[in-house]
Specification:
Layout (H helix, E strand, L loop, with lengths): L2 H10 L4 E2 L6 E6 L3 H18 L4 E5 L2 E6 L9 H22 L1
Antiparallel strand pairs: 1-2, 2-4, 3-4
Helix pairs in contact: 2-3
């Protein structure tokens, strides 16, 4: 995908940023502690397995960093943006359940 082709997809996945090389998108998530971060990583893992599309994830106490790219093509594909949207939805669901 060219940067121009990526624009509409980036608009759909708020808070995800195009990395400098335009071959990955990334997002940083914040949590109150390690346990919440780990739980979020596990939820991402479940979706990644279902999709057969696996992000690079780094996490520790209070944060989760996610990078998406399609390794087979050495860059971004529509699948990366679909998975980003599903990860965003996970976070929104977590926030709603905290509010209850």
């Amino acid at each position: 995908m060219t940067p121009e082709e990526m624009k509409p997809y980036l608009e759909e996945v708020k808070a995800w940023k195009l990395k400098d090389d335009t071959k990955k998108i990334e997002r940083k998530f914040k949590f109150k502690d390690f346990k919440e971060a780990l739980a979020f990583v596990n939820k991402i893992g479940e979706i990644a397995e279902q999709e057969g599309h696996h992000p690079d994830i780094t996490f520790s106490w209070g944060y989760v960093d996610v990078e998406l790219s399609t390794h087979a093509i050495g860059g971004l594909s529509v699948n990366d943006f679909i998975l980003a949207a599903k990860i965003n939805k996970l976070q929104q669901e977590d926030k709603r359940s905290e509010a209850k």
